[in-house]
Amino acid sequence: MVGNADYTVIIGLCTHLGCIPSWAPSTMQFKCACHGGEFDASGVNTFGPPPRPMDIPPFKIEGTKLVLGEEGPEYKKLVAKA
Ligand code: FES
Q: Where are the domains of the chain?
């Protein structure tokens, strides 16, 4: 959460064979058209052949700004849980 907004920071590639899943707002899921894989809004695999969640790129939060490519405490906390 940055300010009052929620964000999902993920590399949007399917962890099965690398297709690009589409966001389906009606079901709040990422759906992969290649082999039917599904991910929740956090990029966690929930159905089909994807073997693991989508990858999280390094990021940090500076006030209301999201900075990609640098490891902040929020990123380190997420990576430590995985
Ligand atoms: S590449 Fe996404 S389910 Fe196979």
A: 22-81
Q: Is 16 a catalytic residue?
A: no
* Ligand 1 pocket member 75 (CB < 6 A): no
Write a three-state SS string for the chain: CECCECCCCCCCCCCCCCCCCEEECCCCEEECCCCCCEECCCCCEEECCCCCCCCCCCEEEECCEEEECCCCHHHHHHHHHC
CA of 33 to the centre of ligand 1 (A): 7
Q: Is the CB of 14 under 6 A from ligand 1?
A: yes
Read off the pLDDT of residues 16-55 as tens digits, 9 standing for 90 and up: 999 999 999 999 999 999 999 999 999 999 999 999 999 9
Domain covering 22-81, topology: Rieske Iron-sulfur Protein (2.102.10)
